[in-house]
C-alpha cells in the first residue's frame, strides 16, 4: 500500500512535457489576445493626439483613453470631449478626405474600407436640432493671442462668441479668445440636423474643426466612437478630461 502511494506521489511530481507546456502557453496567449481584441474594439479607445487643436485640455502628443461603452449604451452630451470618425486617407494619393455618404475617396474613387481611417478628437458643441452661431462680439489686444494668424494694423484682433439657440455659452476651457474675423476665421450660422453633432476644438485659433468642413460639417451619431475620460501620457499631464 505504501509503495503504491509513493508511486502516485512520484508520478505527480513528474515535469510537464514540452508539448504540454507549449499548449498551456498557447492557451494563455490566445485568451490574452481575445481579451485585448474585445477591450480595444468594444470597451475602450486608445488615441494619440497629434496636434494642438485641443490645447490646453489635451496637449499635442498626449495619449488618451476613451470609453466606447459610454456611447454604445449612453448618450452624447454637450461638452463631451469625443473621439469620432472624421474621414480617411487614400492609400493611392495620400489625400485626407472627410467621411461622406458615397463611401469612396472623392479624388480617385477608392472605397473607404480600402483606405486608412482617420479619427479626430474634438468637443461636442452643437446637439441635434441646435441653432449654432459663431459671431464677432468684440476686439482684444493682439498680445492676447499666442499664435496670431491675422494681421492688424490697429494692434487689435476681432474675437467672438458661440451662441446656442440664441444664448451665449461660457467656455472656460478655451486657452485664449476665439478669433472671428469673417475671413480666415469665419462666422457660423447653422442648424444641426437630427442625429448629428457640431464639433469644435478647444484651441479655436489652431483647430481644423466643423467651422472649416464646408457642406459636410456635421458628425453623425454612428460615427461617434468614444467619450474621452483620461489622459495617461505624458505622466505630468495625466488626469481626468473635462
Automatic annotation (TrEMBL):
EC supergroup of this enzyme: hydrolase
Gene3D superfamilies, per database record: Umud Fragment, subunit A (2.10.109.10)
Predominant location: membrane
PANTHER family, alphabetized: CHLOROPLAST PROCESSING PEPTIDASE, SIGNAL PEPTIDASE I
Record flagged with keyword Transmembrane helix: yes
Similarity section: Belongs to the peptidase S26 family.
This protein's name: Signal peptidase I
Cross-referenced InterPro entries: LexA/Signal_pep-like_sf (IPR036286), Pept_S26A_signal_pept_1 (IPR000223), Pept_S26A_signal_pept_1_Lys-AS (IPR019757), Peptidase_S26 (IPR019533)
Gene: lepB
Any single biological process term in GO: signal peptide processing
NCBIfam families, alphabetized: sigpep_I_bact
Organism: Oribacterium sinus F0268
Molecular function terms from GO: serine-type endopeptidase activity; signal peptidase activity
Enzyme Commission identifier(s): 3.4.21.89
Gene Ontology cellular component list: plasma membrane
Cited CDD domains: S26_SPase_I (cd06530)
Residue positions of the active site: 53, 122
Span of domain Peptidase S26: 23-233
Catalytic activity: Cleavage of hydrophobic, N-terminal signal or leader sequences from secreted and periplasmic proteins
